[in-house]
Design a protein that fits this description.
The complex is a heterodimer of chains A (about 110) and B (about 160). Chain A is elongated, with a radius of gyration of 19 Å. Chain A has six helices and three strands; from the N terminus they run ααβααββαα. Chain A has two domains: about 80 residues, Winged helix-like DNA-binding domain superfamily/Winged helix DNA-binding domain (Arc Repressor Mutant, subunit A, Orthogonal Bundle), CATH 1.10.10.10; about 30 residues. The N and C termini of chain A lie far apart (about 60 Å). Chain A is α+β, with helices and mostly antiparallel strands and about 110 residues long. Chain B is α+β, with helices and mostly antiparallel strands and about 160 residues long. Chain B has one domain: Alpha-D-Glucose-1,6-Bisphosphate, Chain A, domain 4, CATH 3.30.530.20. In chain B, strands 1-2-8-7-6-5-4-3 form an eight-stranded antiparallel beta sheet. The chains are: A alpha+beta (about 110), B alpha+beta (about 160). Chains A and B meet through helix 1, helix 2 and helix 6 of A and strand 2, helix 1, helix 3 and helix 4 of B.
């Protein structure tokens, strides 16, 4: 099987999502990113590599260091970005409907 | 019932609106009573602390399908019965600290037995807001993404 490299693969992993959240707050080098995690530097470096290959991170060379930025253009590709958020709330609200019906019946 | 979600560009808040076929006192109970709140969360979900009163704190815990523990903690700044709740909410479970959001939940009776719930979530900046909408709220995403993981495996 050919290894898939797309935005969905990138965000399917919790550590990679955490890296994205971290970088959303500001660009950082690989070392600084790794310092925020308990996992080994190599593991984090692998995650950064996958995120970069998936086009979610943009590299900026600053002297000998590489600074990673969120590639906001490709983040938008996470189609209808609000959709999973909406699904969460809809699922919760549907449950609330059921609870409200039960409460009304027990009055 | 449709859920309206608005996250305008250039702003740092999210608006969530939904109508319910019940009076506002019933809808309000679902927002402040511990056992009722638990019922409408993604399971397994528990409260480690819950004090549904002015100045009371809460801390929730959820175990995702990946075995990681997440949750939210915060303080009920103000509870005006059958009207409004103002609380803070800090996402727990990331390897670093995030700044809590301020949440305003209000209920308004739009008709007999019809109540509109409006939730405004205010973040400290637009990027954090977008990150939260996109991928910060891991609790629900884990269910979605574990499905996505399985789909990817079968491709």
């Amino acid at each position: 099987m050919e290894i898939r490299r797309d935005v969905f693969q990138a965000i399917a992993d919790p550590t990679r999502r955490s890296i994205l959240v971290l970088l959303a707050a500001g660009a950082m080098g690989a070392g600084a990113i790794a310092n925020q995690f308990i996992s080994s530097r190599q593991t984090i470096s692998k995650h950064i590599q996958i995120l970069t290959e998936c086009g979610l991170l943009r590299q900026e060379h600053k002297g000998r260091e590489i600074i990673y930025h969120i590639n906001s253009k490709n983040m938008k590709q996470i189609a209808d970005f609000i959709e999973p958020f909406r699904q969460l709330w809809e699922a919760r609200f549907d449950k609330m409907d059921t609870i409200l019906d039960n409460l009304k019946n027990t009055k | 019932m449709t859920t309206n979600i608005t996250a305008e560009k250039g702003k740092q808040d999210i608006w969530i609106e939904r109508s319910f076929n019940a009076n506002k006192s019933l809808v309000f109970r679902l927002l402040v009573e511990e056992d009722l709140i638990i019922q409408w969360q993604v399971q397994p979900f528990t409260f480690k602390t819950f004090e549904g009163k002015n100045g009371g704190s809460y801390e929730s815990e959820h175990i995702g399908p990946d075995g990681n523990t997440y949750g939210f903690k915060g303080v009920f700044h103000e509870i005006i019965p059958n009207e409004r709740i103002i609380k803070t909410s800090e996402f727990i479970g990331l390897p670093f600290k995030v700044i809590p959001t301020l949440e305003i939940h209000s209920v308004e009776e739009t008709n007999t037995d019809q109540t509109q719930l409006t939730i405004q979530i205010i973040c400290n900046n637009e990027e954090v807001r977008d990150a939260m909408v996109q991928h910060g709220m891991q609790q629900q995403f884990d269910t979605l993404f574990s499905n996505l993981d399985n789909c990817l495996k079968t491709i």
